Amino acid sequence: MRFFQTFTFFGNSHLQSQQLAQQCQQCYGLALLCEVTAPQVLAKAYDLVHWFARTIARAGSSEGAALRQALAQLPPIEGAVRCYAPAFTAKRHDALSAEDCHLVRFAADGAIVVVSL
What we know:
By secondary structure, the chain is an alpha+beta fold. The chain has helices spanning 15-28, 39-59, 64-71, and strands at residues 2-5, 77-78, 83-84, 102-106, 112-114. It contains three helices and five strands; from the N terminus they run E-H-H-H-E-E-E-E.
């Protein structure tokens, strides 16, 4: 079975992805990364928490207008999914694009791996 995915631990060279994988294995006692049921959800949540923390720090407030403005002014962030440079702008409100979608499949061990075209 093949499907689209925006993240996999396997073949991912982002430092934050590798650190997240290591932390996940240590914290939850996982022998294999393929034991992570929804790696894309984990990685996106990880990135989102980092964006949100930086946004609040930059805004100096939790008010919506201040957060929107600060979010559009964040410096590049190296995330688990990708490097967001920038994550958002005043006109672009989606951090991911079509280039971030990959055709993947399940390997024999259950790992989600990118399909070579």
